[in-house]
UniProtKB/TrEMBL annotation:
CDD domains registered for this protein in UniProt: HTH_XRE
TM helices/strands, residue ranges: none
Cross-referenced InterPro entries: Cro/C1-type_HTH, Lambda_DNA-bd_dom_sf
Protein name, UniProt field: Transcriptional regulator
A GO term for molecular function: DNA binding
Pfam families, per the entry: HTH_3 (PF01381)
Length: 73
């Protein structure tokens, strides 16, 4: 089965965003996006939802096998 983080990479590329451009849209650096795509880090829930909205994808399709953290308020 294809790894979900590859879905994130594919969705980003379909929208013609670089990691830097996508990061800028959610006020994150290129390294953060890269870390999500490689599985080195996991996005907070609010970040995952923002990315899904920007990429016009279902959040579950992008991050289902990536543990999504909830923000601590």
């Amino acid at each position: 089965m294809r790894n979900k983080r590859h879905n994130l990479i594919s969705a980003r590329k379909r929208k013609n965003y670089t990691q830097e451009q996508l990061g800028a849209l959610i006020n994150k650096g290129k390294t953060v996006i890269s870390n999500w795509e490689t599985g080195y880090a996991t996005p907070a829930l609010d970040d995952a939802l923002q990315v899904a909205q920007i990429l016009e994808e279902d959040v579950y399709n992008l991050f289902l096998d990536v543990k999504v953290q909830t923000s601590h308020i």
